[in-house]
């Protein structure tokens, strides 16, 4: 039977990994994700989870160990954050290119310098194009649910790509929230045993990820891109199946009071729930505003996004990372590109905030909406506006 408990969100992720029945956890502790792998090491040591915990000396080694265990057919999990994800960077590409269904939780953290252990999205934006399926959580229940879903999706024979589950460092990882923990039998019904179709076998030795000269490299990359794009229907299908099994429906693009809105705010991650408060206040004053939340970041769901913003005149986009030297934030750039071919596309205003763990309050979201409308009416296209900068 499912049960509702109050627990730290990091521990909800480790509970989901336990219920998924992983075979191997290879990880290195780094703030703010340490509680996830620390909890898993305790579960394994105490016999609550029958798995191998591989202690490594770095995140680069952690992902390297994950390559080997996943290639051997083991259900594999790791977790990291910020600088750890960047130390993994080289091997993260290999996991995707070798089609290994690893699941990784990323407790999103700001990158140095200056050194920060607090949350923003600069780490995940740095690995945007590594070939991983990337999804964002807004609360503890989503972090638990989407971790279970990630194994189901990654291991589907029509997918076989690694999945990155993003949850905001500290703003989400270290808070205590009510979470519904599902019955193991229901999870096993939704998540069948991992049957990797091409496991390494010492009786039939093969070479994986070998040297690719110029006469095949482009074709290999094209094949990977086509396979990656083909995962989108399966992502939708497996999320729909999750909703039918557990009663919690997840969409690639989520909307909040957006159907009749002429002005939309766009967010990703846990700050979306604060943004809803701003939308409620403006709606109470009779303003036609709404919220769009991007849940699936890669592969980007272009058609779902275009449908979600159809009819809007103004779109205010919040980024939690800086694209240095770029005119707007990375999400705003993606969104503008997605809408470029449309004749009736909304005016896009780019805002950057919540860097290095700084809070954004409902009043600031209200400011973004009003400022975006002001810019749209004046026809001014500014590069971006930084929110919360102290004078």
Description:
The longest helix has 17 residues, at 362-378. The mean pLDDT is 97. Helix 6 crosses helix 9 and helix 10 (271-284) packs across helix 13 (362-378). The chain is 41% helix and 19% strand. The protein contains 13 helices and 15 strands. It is globular. The relative contact order is 0.11. It has two domains: 3-246, Rossmann fold, CATH 3.40.50; 253-386, 3-Layer(aba) Sandwich (Rossmann fold), CATH 3.40.50.920. The protein is an alpha/beta fold. The strands form three sheets. Strands 3-2-4-5-7-6-12 form a seven-stranded mixed β-sheet, with helices on both faces. A six-stranded mixed β-sheet has the order 9-11-10-13-14-15, with helices on both faces. Strands 1-8 form a two-stranded antiparallel sheet. The protein has helices at residues 9-20, 34-45, 59-71, 82-97, 122-126, 140-154, 184-190, 214-229, 232-246, 271-284, 302-309, 330-339, 362-378; strands at 3-8, 24-27, 52-55, 76-80, 103-108, 133-136, 163-168, 176-181, 253-256, 263-267, 289-294, 296-298, 314-319, 347-352, 385-386.
Strand order of the largest sheet: 3-2-4-5-7-6-12
**Which series of helices and strands comes N to C?**
EHEHEHEHEHEHEEHHHEEHEEHEHEHE
The radius of gyration is 21 Å
| Integer average pLDDT | 97
The H-level CATH homologous superfamily of the largest domain, spelled out, is: Thiamin diphosphate (ThDP)-binding fold, Pyr/PP domains
* SS strand fraction: 15-25%
């Amino acid at each position: 039977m499912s049960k509702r408990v109050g627990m730290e969100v990091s521990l909800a992720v480790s509970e989901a990994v336990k219920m998924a029945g992983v075979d191997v956890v290879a990880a290195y502790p780094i703030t703010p994700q340490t509680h996830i792998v620390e909890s898993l090491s305790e579960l394994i040591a105490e016999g609550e989870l029958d798995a191998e915990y591989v202690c490594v000396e770095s995140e680069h080694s952690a992902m390297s160990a994950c390559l080997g265990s996943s290639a051997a057919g083991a259900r594999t999990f790791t977790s990291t954050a910020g600088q750890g994800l960047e130390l993994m960077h080289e091997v993260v590409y290999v996991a995707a290119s070798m089609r290994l269904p690893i699941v990784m939780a990323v407790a999103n953290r700001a990158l140095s310098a200056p050194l920060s252990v607090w949350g923003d999205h600069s780490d995940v934006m740095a690995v945007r194009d590594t070939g991983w399926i990337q999804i964002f959580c807004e609360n503890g229940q989503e972090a638990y649910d989407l971790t279970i879903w990630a194994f189901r999706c990654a291991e589907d024979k029509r997918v076989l790509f690694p999945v990155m589950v993003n949850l905001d460092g500290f703003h989400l990882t270290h808070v205590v929230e009510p979470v519904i923990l599902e019955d193991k039998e229901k999870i096993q019904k939704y998540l069948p045993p991992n049957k990797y179709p091409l496991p390494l076998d010492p009786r039939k030795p093969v070479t994986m990820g070998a040297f690719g000269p110029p006469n095949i490299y482009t074709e290999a990359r094209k094949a990977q891109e086509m396979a990656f794009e083909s995962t989108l229907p399966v992502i939708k299908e497996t999320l729909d199946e999750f909703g039918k099994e557990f009663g919690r429906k997840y969409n690639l693009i989520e909307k909040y009071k957006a159907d009749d809105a002429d002005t939309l705010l766009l967010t990703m991650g846990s700050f979306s729930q604060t943004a809803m408060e701003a939308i409620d206040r403006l709606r109470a004053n009779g303003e036609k505003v709404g919220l769009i939340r991007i849940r699936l970041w890669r592969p980007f769901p272009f058609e779902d996004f275009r449908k979600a913003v159809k009819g809007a005149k103004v779109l205010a986009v919040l980024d939690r990372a800086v694209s240095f030297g770029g005119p707007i934030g990375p999400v705003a750039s993606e969104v503008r590109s997605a809408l470029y071919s449309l004749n009736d596309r909304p005016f896009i205003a780019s805002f950057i905030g919540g860097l290095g763990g700084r809070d954004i309050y409902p009043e600031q979201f209200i400011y973004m909406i009003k400022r975006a409308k002001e810019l749209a009416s004046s026809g001014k296209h500014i590069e971006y506006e930084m929110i919360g900068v102290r004078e």
